[in-house]
Amino acid sequence: MKRNQPILILVTALAIAAMACNLPVAQPSADATEVSTEEPTEVSTEEPTEVSTEEPEVAQTEVPTEEVPNGVRVSVSTATNCRTGPDVAYQLLMTVQPGTDFEVVGKYTPKTYWIINMPTGGTCWLWGQYATVIGDTSVLPEIAAPAPPPVAQADPNQNENSNDNDSNNKDSENSNDSGNGNDNSNNNPTIPLIPIIPAFIVPSPPSNVNVTKTCDFNFPNTTQTSTITWGDTSSETGYVIYKDGVAIANLGANVTKYVDKFNVLFGANTQVKYGVQTVIGSSKSAPVEQTIDVCN
């Protein structure tokens, strides 16, 4: 029995080996054996674009520099009015006196006006008739005239004398004389004319002035009574009575008679001259005079 034991073991081993050869072989998983056909993602070989590190340029806003005086100054040879525009229709702001000078900031050549800085601030328009300008006027800007002010109705019962008389302030910028700049604007019918407000009203002289006398002889004195009458003038504010060129009475409105009583002096003038003058505000007419003989 022990002699056959090795043979039995060998047979058993062979049987086991035969059985192992007949067992099914395990197939690998399809997923495990599948080869991916997906192409690899393309990798760009271009070099990255250079990114600018400079800050974008910012547009600079021009800041106006501080105004520098242009060196142009003006003075006048006689008192001249300075207004809100180039004509007597504009409001009077100040009167420039000789011996002072002002900075000029603009010009209006059609009527020869200079725009100047006022000491109190702001600007006004100075007529150039009596002005002397020092400096380069070519650097001055040409300023357009402002719109004319509305026309005011003159009240004859008030003083209309705005001191614009030529003999006072030499501001006679009458529209008839303001064409010194040859602007010829009046030739264009589409441009309205600027109405001019009279600088003052000249009263009408009294009418029908008459002087009568009565004599009172009481030796050694002789008394004369002179009676002056005249016609009432429209819109007057009073009358002034003159005797031999000297004012002797200031009367109110609507008065039409004045009596002058005096003693005749021995050896005095043989005639006396009376005059009557109409007054409106501070304006006066020419006196109307009449001469009579003195009692003798």
Question: How would you briefly describe this protein structure?
Answer:
This protein is mostly beta strands.
Question: Keyphrases for this structure?
Answer:
5-stranded antiparallel beta sheet; 15 strands; 296 residues; Immunoglobulin-like; SH3 type barrels; 2 domains; 9% helix; 7-stranded antiparallel beta sheet; mainly beta
The CATH class of the largest domain is identified as: Mainly Beta
What's the β-strand tally? 15
Biggest β-sheet: strands ordered side by side in the sheet:
3-2-6-5-4-1-7
> How big a fraction of the residues is strand?
25-35%
Distance between the termini: 216 Å
Largest sheet: 7 strands, antiparallel
Give helix % range.
under 10%
H/I helix tally: 3
Annotated CATH homologous superfamily of the largest domain: SH3 Domains
> What is the second-level CATH architecture of the largest domain?
Roll
Structural class by helix and strand composition: mainly beta
**What integer is the average pLDDT?**
75
Number of domains: 2
What Rg is obtained from the alpha carbons, in whole angstroms? 57 Å
Q: Describe the global form.
A: rod-shaped
SSE arrangement, N to C: HHEEEEEEEHEEEEEEEE
CATH third-tier fold name of the largest domain: SH3 type barrels
Question: What's the arrangement of secondary structure elements?
Answer:
Elements (H helix, E strand, L loop, with lengths): L4 H18 L7 H4 L39 E4 L3 E4 L8 E5 L4 E8 L4 E5 L5 E5 L3 E4 L31 H4 L37 E12 L2 E11 L6 E6 L2 E7 L4 E7 L7 E10 L2 E2 L3 E6 L3
Antiparallel strand pairs: 1-4, 1-7, 2-3, 2-6, 4-5, 5-6, 8-9, 9-12, 10-11, 10-13, 13-14, 13-15
